[in-house]
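step 3/5: co-fold with zinc ion
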Amino acid sequence: MTRLPAEPLRLDWLIRAGVIHSMTGDLYRSVGVRGTEIVAVSEEPDGLDDLAGSGTVNVDAGDLTLLPAFDDSHEHLMEAGRNTMLVPVDEARSIAEFKKLVHDAAAAAASDAWIVTSNGWNESHLAENRMPTAAELDEAASDHPVFARRGGHLAVANSFALKVAGIGPDTPNPPGGGIGRWPDGKLSGLLEGGAVYVVAGFAPPMTRAELVQGLGRASAAYAAVGVGGLREAMITGDELLAYQDAADQGLLRVRVRPLIRVGAELNEDQARTFIDGLGARSGLGDDWLRIWGLKFVLDGGVEGAALEAPYANDPKNSGHLNWDPDVMTRVCVEAASRGWRIGTHAVGDRAVRTLLDVYEGVVAQVGTLPPWTLVIEHALVSDAKQRARAVEGGFGITVQHALLWNMGREMVTTWGPERARNVTPLDEWLKLGASLAAGTDIVRPLNPMTNVWGMVTRGTRAAGIQGPEHAIPVATALELYTMGTARLNGEADRRGSVAPGKLADLVAYPVDPLTAELDDLAELAPTFTMIGGHATHDPDQRLAH
Ligand SMILES: [Zn+2]
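step 4/5: write tokens
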């Protein structure tokens, strides 16, 4: 038995479980919680009984397996929150259903009001396996501007919305973006990269109160799948205020570590002024809400990733870089010197190589930085030389099998089968001793066990098994999803494992994920989730008292 020295120690919670995986190699049978923290663990179910008093809630969970709650290293809770209030086109399974949802929303809206959809959908969920067109959205609602974002880097707009945004057939592509056109030159409605933000700028923003409400709803949905914390991968300063309101009002059900966006549309002076004006630096906040750092976006998503070799389905296209590397290096030097951690979106191998140049340039000027100060987000396509450089430079990598799981089919089409099967080779990274933290980045609550199943099998939602040679063991996947993210957040002493002195962030399962059949992992749902000694998900009232 291990316990903190403070005596007398009366537990608020005494939980006895079938097995408790500490994530540091130890197995326990009971855990004691006082206030927000774990204060004692024991290998015996009754090993902590002498610490229980009249105020202790006893939870007999001998049928359950406990793990540290999942900690997602890269997800977009703010977007997921916003989605809870937008047209739920993620429910559509065909273009016709998509159009009907848009049509019904328009019928219920004030005349001329913008109809904005959730961005948590994907065309591969639609029977037609393609994006709707401007013409189809016109059929659904021609009297309203309609704007349907899909994920972070793609959207489709109807003719009304394109007109309001001043986009016509002759409008040049904006920096870092593309405006879709048919062979005859007419607009298709498709918007990629920077073009998404051009139209988004015309849609009315949600009020802060709405954002707060959305954060409450969405964070509860993440807690329900066993997530205890997530690193919010891109927000604005205004959105940080909404987070602060949500935390103050007790609405957050997951711990959040936000990254503030430094827009690629800023020139060097503007970017420096923006960073200087933030005043704070990484680490400000408390256990619920603590600023992680700054976010840069160097290339696009599946459709705009900067690749070394051209797209498989478009030999003239090899994606785009959003920053001039020399400018970005100087801006990052400024940021790192002011105490900021930096996470940079780099999906394609050309973006990864460019980012390594930038980060190595920063270290050359600022000197060696603490681990996880300079982070590569995604690195979906990388080669052996790049991976070795990342490890050599001490740059951490956030990895999201969920992206391959969700968009594997698009990756096979756009990047070709060879690059798709080698997306995020976790085995290769681990062989080199890379610093990895696991997450999702699919802007909706995904059962983390589905993601673990994917890391272990290389299984996907609609593209079969991709690169089975890159699979990793279950225990490693769980470790990257708990301790990995704790290290990324500089919180390895407070989170990520079950041990005295750590926050009481726990998730319970009806079977042991480490011994379950692999095929049962994908759908394995938690029985309860506890964060800081409070139940955040407990449908069966196992924590009721
Ligand atoms: Zn992201």
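step 5/5: annotate
The chain has a mean pLDDT of 96.
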